[in-house]
Amino acid sequence: MLSKPLLPSAYSRCQNKSQFFLTQRGADEQFLSRPVRQRDRLPPVLRGHGHMDFDHTFCIAYRTNYSRNNRANILACHQAVKDRPQVIQNAVLNLELALRGAQTERHSGFRAPRILLYVAHAITLIPGDGIGPEVADATARAVEATGVSIEWDRVDAGVEAEKATGKYLPDTVLESLGRTKVGLKGPVGTPIASGHSSINVALRKRLNLFVNFRPVRMLPGLKTRFADLPIDMIIFRENTEDLYAGIEHEVVPDVVESLKVITRVASEKIAKAAFEYATLEKRKKVVAIHKANIMKMSDGLFLRCCRETAARFPGIEYSELIVDNACMQLVMRPETFDVLVLPNLYGDIVSDLAAGLVGGLGIVPGANLGDNCAVFEAVHGSAPDIAGKGVANPTALMQSARLMLAHIGERDAAIRLQKAIEKVYADGKHLTHDVGGSAGTKEFTDAVIAALR
Ligand code: NAD
Question: 413 and which of 44, 45, 146, 336 could share a cystine (Cβ 3.0–4.6 Å)?
């Protein structure tokens, strides 16, 4: 279900052909003055239906006069949105409920001219710790400036949540993600060598977000040591096991063991994800990165799964690199890498190395993807050294939001946001300190929003 009561039990009044405003009775106040956008790009399946408006960017507006076509319209709607995100499908469900409610009212003698259903994407926003709230707010502003309607369900995890609820990962976070299926998350701090275990790892494991997806690309105009190289690589890091299984114990005093867990199921899933992506995006090469010369069983199993998967994708060139050699090659010839697939720990380390090639942690986006849920987050941490100073670079989270927009079907908005970020970098006048500029978080964000218009 949607995170907020989006369904107006109220009726609408038509302002003009392309704008509707919700009226009274239970509709959330904030929706009362929002226009439904133009009915451009009506999906073909809906074009024949006079009763329906469909806004390609975010909403279904549905009107009915209780005609006998209602059922047909709903079915058409189901058909049109079957590949759309869950939130839209929920909206259709709500639509059916609305119709049932309306029919009841009709029988009681009250005749309404139409029902309007207004739907926004429900997204869980987890601002996080340190610079998290600063970059999350900046990103939310930029996303809203694309014109896509988002209902943010803001929930806390990390230090702030612990202060309020006594828990670093309160149930509200998982409940919200269970509802919305999509999250945008700022960084959350984890104490080193003691204290609570990582919330990020817990979230990935609890929601089975088995893919960590990190595209690493050079932004135009950015001065880095590798600025003249066409770096464009995609990292697929397994996200749920390996040494991050968090199984550690002290065998005897001063002797500890950490278990490295590698399973066929998880290894096959990440390998399949990498090859399917490579095929879909017309990438040429996948390289599996490992240390199977030493960890013959665990990394050996990971590698076997990659080889077996590679055999099913003959159109993609497959190779293997031992992780230490891979790190050297990444620094010496980063432009030769295309798609990389790695177990969890190597993936974590190599992701930061790759981020360093294209301007640092403030730049690179990330997505944690599972079968039922996706959480988008930057690669960087909570940066306690600069928290609260208004200087954090929100690019990484904005780029993560760009991935999120594409994921929820808002490809146009995703491309516009990407181009706006690139324009600000190409101009070079409003860059943050970490990438050689002197602007603060707000100034950079304002520039991105201006470039969107
Ligand atoms: P970090 O990424 O927080 O900081 C490393 C360096 O990069 C710092 O100098 C910081 O100022 C700079 N930096 C990072 N992000 C920046 C940004 N957006 N703009 C400008 N500069 C930026 O890494 P760390 O210091 O190793 O970790 C700090 C905390 O973050 C730890 O508790 C760690 O566990 C946590 N962490 C969380 C995540 C996550 O939530 N996904 C990821 C990594 C680390």
Answer: 146
Instruction: Enumerate residue ranges in the chain where pLDDT < 70.
Output: 1-120, 192-194
- Residue 120 confidence (pLDDT): 61
Contact 93, 121 (CB under 8 A): no
Ligand 1 close to Cβ of residue 381 (< 6 A): yes
Spacing, Cα 131 to ligand 1 middle (Å): 9
Nearest CA to ligand 1 atom 38: 381
The rounded radius of gyration (Å) of the Cα atoms in the chain is 24
Q: How far is the CA of 120 from the centre of ligand 1 (A)?
A: 32
Pocket perturbation via mutation, ligand 1, pick of 380, 398, 441 by most ligand atoms within 8 A of CB: 380
The CA-atom distances, in angstroms, between 336 and each of 237, 330, 333 are: 19, 8, 6
Q: What pLDDT sits at residue 439?
A: 97
Q: Atom 13 in ligand 1: which residue has the minimum CA distance?
A: 383
> Which residues, including other chains, have CB under 8 Å from residue 109's CB and lie 6 or more apart?
none
pLDDT at 193: 66
Please say whether the beta carbons of 444 and 432 come within 8 A: yes
Residue with CA closest to ligand 1 atom 44:
381
pLDDT given for residue 411 in this prediction:
83
